[in-house]
TrEMBL record, chains A, B:
It comes from the Bacteria. InterPro entries: ArsR-like_HTH, HTH_ArsR_DNA-bd_dom, WH-like_DNA-bd_sf, WH_DNA-bd_sf. Residues 16-98 form the HTH arsR-type domain. It comes from Dyella lipolytica. This is Helix-turn-helix transcriptional regulator. Coiled coil: none annotated.
DNA sequence: TTCTATAGTTCATATGTTGCGAACTATTGG
DNA sequence: CCAATAGTTCGCAACATATGAACTATAGAA
């Protein structure tokens, strides 16, 4: 089993970060990791955004986030603990991650608003 | 020939923006458009980042940027004029585009530094 | 050690996306 | 109408992604 790859901070690229976070599932995972104080395992995300994600797919998504330099994964016994590398990335690309997280929050808020409006329209 | 599609501002998604800008060529195009005051045609980018991009590929890249909501394209005679939709996006996702542009700038500066260091190492 | 359970990874493959040359469309000016 | 210029679309090869099946790694029990 190949060892986990964590790029060094200067090998992290903007394109890599944007690509990793341009997938809705990965963005959701990353947001949860960024918000939650502690570390989270892979399996914590088998359900995300009202969808079931197969384990193999999740594993690939975690690999993508890891190799983009967004998260750090460490084995602890039988599970894998994942944490963000937010503060490192903040050093290299100040403001980038916060801006993306904020934009996602704006979009989620706006999406909820539209959903309510659509429901009202249907009901009324 | 199908008409050009420009999503309305509320249909622009974070994922779409990140995906569009996660490609190095598109990111370079967008940066030039953002920096240049006026509008630019497609063909202004046949050479970018020391690479020749085929016209058909460029056309696809412009379409990707357009349909992600990042640029507006308008026909003027035989050419196409492209402008960014920065200010609109700034309304919907404040700070997102500036943060990405800044991160790209940081990366370009850092890349140049590493290149010089590599050159020195080879020379010395 | 061997057996079992759990958490993730890797493989094979089907499906989706991208890059680019060739052929095409749209516009302008003889 | 013809030619030139600027972009677009088509078709296909190359690359990427999602997922079930098979596998590896670790812990605990017997």
């Amino acid at each position: 089993m190949r060892p986990l790859i964590h790029p060094s901070i200067e090998d992290i690229s903007v394109e890599g970060i944007l690509h990793a976070l341009s997938d809705p599932v990965r963005a959701a995972i990353y947001m949860e990791l960024a918000v939650s104080s502690g570390a989270s395992t892979c399996s914590d995300f088998l359900q995300i955004k009202e969808r079931n994600i197969p384990k193999s797919t999740l594993s690939q998504h975690f690999r993508a986030l890891r190799e983009a330099g967004l998260i750090r994964s460490e084995r602890q016994g039988v599970e894998m603990f994942n944490t963000t590398r937010c503060s490192e990335i903040e050093q290299r690309f100040p403001g980038l991650i916060p801006a993306i997280l904020k934009a996602h929050a704006v979009q989620a808020a706006h999406g909820a608003k539209r959903k309510r409006a659509a429901g009202k329209a249907k009901a009324g």
